[in-house]
Every structure is written in structure tokens, then in C-alpha cells.
Amino acid sequence: MNNHIEIVKACIKGDRKAQKQLYQLFADKMYGVCLRYADNADDAKDILQDGFIKVFVNLKQFTFKGSFEGWVRRIMVNTALEKFRDKSYLFAVNMELGYGTRDTEYDHILTELAAKDLLRLIQELSPQYRMVFNLYAIEGYSHKEICEMLNIKEGTSKSNLSRAREILKEKVKKYYGVKINFV
Amino acid sequence: MKVHLSNMDQVFRRELKNYQHTPPVDVWENIEKELDTKKISGILFYKIAASIAVLTFIASLYFYLNGDSFLQKYSTNQFLTEIIKENKQSGHSVNYSKVLSLGHSSFNDLSKDGWLFLNKNDLEINNTPLYNEEKITLLTSLPVSVKTQKIKAEIYTPQKHQYRSFFAEIFPEFHSLKHQKNYNSKNFSSNKNWMIGGAFAPSYSYRHLTKTNTPVGRNYYNNIESAVFSYTGGLNVQYKPQKKLTIQGGVYYSSMGQDMEHISVYANSVYSLMDEKYKAKYVNQFEIVNSAGKVNFSSPLVYIDETATARVDNLDQAKNTFNVSEPIFNKLNVNIRQSFEYIEIPLLLRYKVLDKIVDINLIGGVGANFLVGNNVYLIYENSKEVIGKTQGVNNINYSGTIGFGLEYPIFSNVNILIEPSVKYYLNPINSTSVVESHPYSVGIYTGVSYSF
User: Fold this and answer.
1) Rounded distance, CA B97 to CA B87, Å?
2) What is the predicted pLDDT for the residue at B191?
3) N or C end of chain A: which has fewer CB within 10 A?
4) Are the beta carbons of A27 and B23 separated by less than 8 Å?
5) DSSP strand E in B306-434: where?
6) Chain B residues inside the 8 Å CB shell of A99
7) What integer pLDDT is reported at residue A110 of this predicted model?
């Protein structure tokens, strides 16, 4: 962590070497984050690029109090959300679907799936479902925080989450359903 | 806040929370390029700012030095024309050609106002009684006359000029004002001090968003809202305490606002067929939240946000799903405009930087803006219908104005003017909104003023 602070300070002064070092430190982790929020690898690359530029431009605002990695990660997530807002013009529908249904029968299959498969499933979700699922299930934000981040109603966030879960379950069944018979 | 996680969520979280993947190699190269251009644009900004400062300095120096260099250039037409003009206005006439033939030795100094400042020694040489006479002849052979009620004040030796105060160096205007005061005579005050006028400007009106409390960010609002073309105009009174400075008050009306984009409006074709008593069932309560504030209204039309956010909300929970792809819905080609009308009481200062046939003024000031109209319009084909008001907007706003103007006399008392200027609201117009929105307008005023 102390190591980070030195690099960050050098970056603020505009030291190109330090900037590259900082990029190399976080590139893989952050690309992992971007891949989850994007439709595809190309979009993820754009988010990563824009996100890092924001990191370098706004580095002065980092207070050195919290975790630096968390700060960078938040910038990446916000950049991804901005991209999503720029791109998608979906109709906001407020679907109330069953919330909190039992997932047990899919858990067996799920545990068999590798990160790459799971990533593909998430990428296939429609943007809004993907955002909500990422923010809630993986990032750990509450519905209240999500509705502020996405400027949607709390109810919409909840229904989007449960719809995302439904879709993910269907996809697991469709893609890997056969596999379960052999397990 | 406690987060409820299903088992499925946990699997995803475990596998993906710290998922890593090496990005393509060109990402860093692209970042580096972008950082370089940002650096250059930063440097460019300072260069531009420095150039403006230098140009302003050179310009002021030019105006100052040029003003004084008139003192030396006896023989240029420009200077002599100046004398005639000034003296005519003050009720004196000076014969152009005869002044020219006076030559240097008789004058030690001539102000750009056209006053003749005489060296005492010269006057002694010419043997002219100066102190007590109403009229003097400078040289017996030349019948040029000037008023000399307070002749002591008129006599400025070159030495005195060399030791002018620093203030006078910066504002040569105050310097010549000092002379005028010393004359202390009505005959010499040639300026008309009061003016009334009117001006009108077509304007480009939008807003600048500063702070935002939502992570949605300013970009979101900038993408979904757009500027409007509007107008402003009013009457003004101007007072001229000195030759180059004017203070302006007045009353102006201005219409400002913004358009909301990416909201689709659908008409329900069933509505018109329904019996009156059922029509109410097709009316929905909507709430639109945008950068200027909230708008609540009820309508039989269906408003749908195209940006997948809660900007447009149907407050009636029972009716909040519309399948607008059904054939009963008919998409309308509309504009939704948020309009604010203000009466402004401005206080502007005008400083004349160039005093030629066409004068150039720098304009700056402040204004109090009183909200007199607050409407949200649905503009559909040629009709304009008020659908609601923006909630929580301030009744009084303060604005700052800067601009410059060209002024041209068409008669001796009447000037026409063209003044491009920018007005910016110093306070956000709605303290309850999630975004701080500062309206601004850019307009080119055209007007007339009458001096008396």
C-alpha cells in the first residue's frame, strides 16, 4: 500500500514512468471489472481506457485515506455506467416478478462453471439487468445505492435484479442443463 | 446496509469479484496518447490565457500612449479634427488652417480633449495679458480665441505632465477630467449626461451544470437536454458621470429555458372514443425529473423515457406498464420545452475603449432577475400547450453580464448600438434539484439610445 502512495504521488506530478507502473499494477484487475460491465471485450477495453484516463486526470482528488484500489475500481464502475447510459435507450419497464425464489437446483451446475462461463452469462444480459446484477450481487451495493447510481426507483432495481437472476438461471439450464445429468 | 444474496449470487461473486484478465497491449499506448493531448491542451490553455493578458496589456498601452501622442502630433488631420469637434461642442470655433499655422512654439501642450494648454513663458513672450480677460488672442496675427475664465487652471507646464500621478497614467480619462473640473465653467461642459434607450436581442439560452448529488452525473443531463433559441429585450436609462464611463439601469424581459430530449410521447387512440365518464381512467399522473427540477402533471398522453432511468415516472403504480407497441398507441412528434421568463433589473457599466466614429464599449455588470413565468410546454405541430410547472425554482436570481458593444451616432442625439453579450446566473436556479443548474444566455442586442 505504501508503495502505491509513492507511485500515486509521482503520477500526480505527471511522471510518465510512474503512470505506466500504476497502470500495470491495476490493469488486469480492472479489465476484469470492465469485462463484467461490458457487452464484449471491445467495450470493456474502451471502458478501461477511459477509466484510466479519468484516474490520471483526477488523481489529485484522491485523499490517501481509503483504499486506492477501491477508488480506482469505483471510477471504472462509474465509467461503465456512463457508457451504458450513453448507449442504451431502453424503455423503463417496471416488472414485478417473483423475488427470492429458491435457487438450489441450479447451484449444483453453477459450482461447476468456471469464471469465464459466468462472465459470458453476465455479458449476455441486457445492459440494465447486467448493471444491477453486477452492482448488487458482485460489487455488493445495496438497492438504495443502486437506484441512486442508475437514477432508477428502488423497486425497479429490485425487479431488475430478480429478472436478471431468472434469465441467468434459464441460460444455465439451456447451456449446461445437459451436463447436470452426468454429474 | 445488509445485502441479501442468493446462493447463485454468491457463486458469481466468488468467481468474478476478483476476476482478472490481461487487457490488450494497445490500451496503454492509447492512454499515453490521450494523456499527451490532455497535457498539450492544458499548456495551450495557459498559452491562450497569457496571450490574452499580453494583448490586453498592449491594447491598453496603445490606447494610453496613443492618447498622449496626440499631444505631439500637431500636424496630423486626426488631431486637428479633434480640436474642432470639441470646441464646436463647447460653443467655440477654431479655424482649422490657422491653428495649423501656429506652429509648435506657441503650444506646449494640447490635450486630446482639444483644450489648449499654454506655457507661461510663451505667453510672456507674446506679451499677452492672460489672467483677467475673458478673451485672449494667442498671437496677434492669428485670431484664434479661447475662453479663459479660470486661466490658471488652463496653464499646464510640461513639467507637471511628467509627474502625473500613477492613477492618471492608468486612466488618462481621469487626468483630463481633472482639467475640466478646474475650468469650473458650464461653457466647457459639452457632454450630454443622460440617455434613454431600448434594446432587443435574439438569444441562445441553455444552462451550465455545476455540482450534482447523483452519480448519474452532469453528462447524463447534458445528453438528454438541449438549448433553446429565445429572445430578450427592454428599456434602459444611462447616466454618464464622465466621458468614457456610462452607468446603465433599466427593465428587461427575457425568456430562457431548455428542451427535454429522449422522451417519447404517445397518444392513446382509445381515449377520444371513450365516453366522458371513462376518460378519467386514461389520464395518468406523471413526474419528470430533470436538471432544472421536478415537473408534475396529468395527461391522457403517455410519456416514456427513452434512457431507461427514472426521469419520467408514472405516479399511478397500478398503471405503470404501458405496452406502447400496441396499435392503440400512436407516437407523436413533439417537443417538451421547459421555459422560464424573467424580468431583469440590470446594473451595467460601459467603458469606452475606442472613441471614434464608431465607439467600442466594454460592458460588465450584474442583474436581479425576477421569475414571472414558469411553464413546461408540449409543442405539437403548430400548437403549444402548457402541461405543468417546474417545482421549486427560485423567484429571484442574480446574474452577471459581460459583453462589448459598437455604438454609432445616426443623429447628434441618437446612437444605434450592437452589443453581443453573455448573461450567466450566478446562483443555481433550483436549490431542491439534484443538480446545480445555472442558466445562461448569449445574445446580440441591437438598440437605440437618445441622449439629452
Assistant:
1) 15
2) 52
3) N
4) yes
5) 312-314, 329-332, 334-355, 359-380, 383-388, 390-391, 396-409, 414-425
6) none
7) 64
